[in-house]
Amino acid sequence: MLIPAILIGVPVGVLIYAYAGYPLLLKLASTVRKRPVATADSRQLPAISICLPAYNEASSIRSTIESLLELEYPADRRQILVISDASTDGTDEIAKEYASSGVELLRQPKRGGKTAAENAAASMVTGDIIVNTDATIRIPPQALEPLVRAFDDPTVGVASGRDISVGATGTEANRGESGYVGYEMWVRSLETQVGSIVGASGCFFAIRRDLHRVQVPEQLSRDFASALIARERGYRSVSVEDAVCFVPRTGSLSVEMRRKVRTMARGLDTLFYMKHLLNPFKYGAFALMLFSHKLCRWLVPLLFPVALLGVGVLALSWTPGAVMLALTLLVLATGLVVVRWPGNRELPRPIAACGYLVSANVAGLLAWAKVLRGDKNPIWEPTRRRQVTPVDDVVSEDDLPEPVEG
């Protein structure tokens, strides 16, 4: 019984620590050492540059640019820069239509991926604060200023928005994403109270210009790397509750699974590239937070086959073990069916949860396989999402998380 107990106990222990133990430690730490929240500064708002990488986004780029122009921020202190990753569908021409409104276009001569596009923007940005966003998300007009005001605190190098996952018709099978995003934003709010988040939202985050100038290897994730670069240079990164952005869910779990494989593989590459930040003797609590929030979570899918092996061994000699194995296989089978389920067919929440859990773990295993093989994927294949806005009737109360305390 000892061997199966170890095979099951280690993965379960990592899972419980990553998703429950670590937030509990953060909650306890926040009662002892809680960072003061910076109050709004009466000084003039800083000049900003909004960077919008795009590849073949002709179907959405017009509405995205118009929504950026509607953001509540002084127009004379705001630059909007569209970085086209060698688009071929008319994205560039649409962006040029807004030149009279101050929208600038930087076209990449050949495809290099999202991080390469963001690196290229360093030569054209004029703002003191660089705001990065995506072509298919929506930012409420009042959400930009709180994000920028976070830099009134001189210790802040990166400020991340608060993602809210919303769903249009056709995304019912992927409702589990909303719950996970809400959980992630809660953890980031706890990290902010303690000191620093360890990764920013790729959909909506801002960074000081001197940190943005640091070139990031094209195969890495800039939103994750930005928080690590900030810590290297003595800054902290924060999550800003009022800087909301609405992120449409993907239409199916199979599409979401492919996205997770790509983002997790890039995240692992980023972590390994900057692994020196895991040294607690030099980086203190940040190293523990980085280990707990990122590496421990990413170890869960890698350890899942170990736990399954342990249950299988247990089933050979113990009847409850056989029951556990049968239930595990049932969840796996259900999840694999849900992954292929049509996005517009609604599912009971427990069934949808099985699909989300299985797809997340399969994606994690595939991501580890890519990284261990040494596959590099700098070329950006954006996830196509159905656009929704905060006022659409497809955004239900279930899509909106409870306000974050603290």
Task: Provide key terms for this protein.
globular; seven-stranded mixed beta sheet; single chain; Spore Coat Polysaccharide Biosynthesis Protein SpsA, Chain A; 12 helices; disordered C terminus; alpha/beta; 406 residues
Task: Walk me through the structure.
It is a single chain. The chain is α/β, with parallel strands linked by helices and 406 residues long. It has a domain at 48-252 and 271-287: Spore Coat Polysaccharide Biosynthesis Protein SpsA, Chain A. The chain has helices at residues 2-32, 61-69, 91-96, 114-121, 144-149, 176-194, 209-212, 222-232, 253-273, 280-315, 319-339, 349-373, and strands spanning 48-54, 78-84, 103-107, 129-133, 156-166, 204-208, 236-248. It has a seven-stranded mixed β-sheet with strand order 3-2-1-4-6-5-7, sandwiched between helices. Helix 3 links the parallel strand 2 and strand 3 (103-107). The N and C termini lie far apart (45 Å).
- CATH fold name of one domain: Spore Coat Polysaccharide Biosynthesis Protein SpsA, Chain A
Measure the end-to-end span: 45 Å
In percent, how helical is the residue content?
40-55%
What letter string, H or E per element, gives the SSE order?
HEHEHEHEHEHEHHEHHHH
SSE topology:
Elements: H1 2-32, E1 48-54, H2 61-69, E2 78-84, H3 91-96, E3 103-107, H4 114-121, E4 129-133, H5 144-149, E5 156-166, H6 176-194, E6 204-208, H7 209-212, H8 222-232, E7 236-248, H9 253-273, H10 280-315, H11 319-339, H12 349-373
Parallel strand pairs: 1-2, 1-4, 2-3, 5-7
Antiparallel strand pairs: 4-6, 5-6
Helix pairs in contact: 1-6, 1-10, 9-12, 10-11, 10-12, 11-12
